[in-house]
């Protein structure tokens, strides 16, 4: 009669414990499927690297962001110096912008000489001689008129060349981009000029 009053909880617990022990000691068949595909070595290594490189604190995350930003700026600086399209700023990317840059760099522009001319005119205007000051004022007017005329002609010609070279493509903003570049001295332009003067882009 003892089995009648045996605790049911003990009976239920005992087989469960045995099952757990039995399952843990049972060796897995090497041919049995694991339920998931085995990752490639490169994928496993990349996952381990990503886990190892994951910042654990806020300070480490901020340091990582600063380092990544510094590297991005360095790549961009090298791209501006060498013309690498991959790391150029968005405003300089694309074949249209590259053609506009090359077109400006291949010719002489009046606006690029504005800074040295402005220095000369400023020096002349400081001289306390009425005739020289009048000459300085006249030179100011001549330089401004020449810059405006050269910009108008250059913009018209470049717009025509862009339509011929890139029919059906979006060339919006390329003329203004080129004219802004023409205002800079050649040696100070970024990205650095990739064509020589007189060379056809």
From TrEMBL:
<feature type="compositionally biased region" description="Polar residues">
    <location>
        <begin position="44"/>
        <end position="56"/>
    </location>
</feature>
<feature type="transmembrane region" description="Helical">
    <location>
        <begin position="108"/>
        <end position="129"/>
    </location>
</feature>
<feature type="region of interest" description="Disordered">
    <location>
        <begin position="1"/>
        <end position="74"/>
    </location>
</feature>
<protein>
    <submittedName>
        <fullName>DUF3043 domain-containing protein</fullName>
    </submittedName>
</protein>
<dbReference type="Pfam" id="PF11241">
    <property type="entry name" value="DUF3043"/>
</dbReference>
<feature type="transmembrane region" description="Helical">
    <location>
        <begin position="135"/>
        <end position="156"/>
    </location>
</feature>
<keyword id="KW-0472">Membrane</keyword>
<dbReference type="InterPro" id="IPR021403">
    <property type="entry name" value="DUF3043"/>
</dbReference>
<keyword id="KW-0812">Transmembrane</keyword>
<feature type="compositionally biased region" description="Basic and acidic residues">
    <location>
        <begin position="57"/>
        <end position="74"/>
    </location>
</feature>
<keyword id="KW-1133">Transmembrane helix</keyword>
């Amino acid at each position: 009669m003892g089995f009648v009053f045996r605790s049911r909880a003990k009976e239920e617990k005992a087989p469960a414990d045995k099952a757990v022990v039995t399952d843990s000691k049972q060796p897995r068949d090497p041919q049995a499927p694991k339920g998931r595909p085995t990752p490639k070595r490169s994928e496993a290594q990349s996952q381990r690297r990503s886990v190892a490189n994951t910042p654990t604190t806020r300070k480490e995350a901020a340091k990582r962001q600063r380092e990544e930003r510094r590297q991005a700026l360095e790549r961009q600086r090298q791209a501006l110096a060498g013309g690498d399209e991959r790391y150029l700023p968005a405003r300089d990317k694309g074949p249209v912008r590259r053609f506009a840059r090359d077109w400006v760099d291949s010719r002489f522009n009046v606006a690029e000489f504005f800074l040295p001319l402005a220095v000369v005119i400023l020096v002349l205007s400081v001289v306390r001689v009425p005739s020289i000051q009048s000459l300085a004022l006249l030179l100011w007017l001549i330089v401004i008129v020449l810059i405006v005329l050269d910009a108008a002609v250059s913009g018209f010609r470049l717009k025509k060349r862009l339509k011929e070279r890139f029919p059906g493509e979006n060339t919006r903003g390329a003329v203004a981009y080129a004219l802004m570049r023409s205002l800079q001295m050649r040696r100070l332009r970024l990205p650095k000029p990739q064509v020589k003067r007189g060379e056809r882009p």
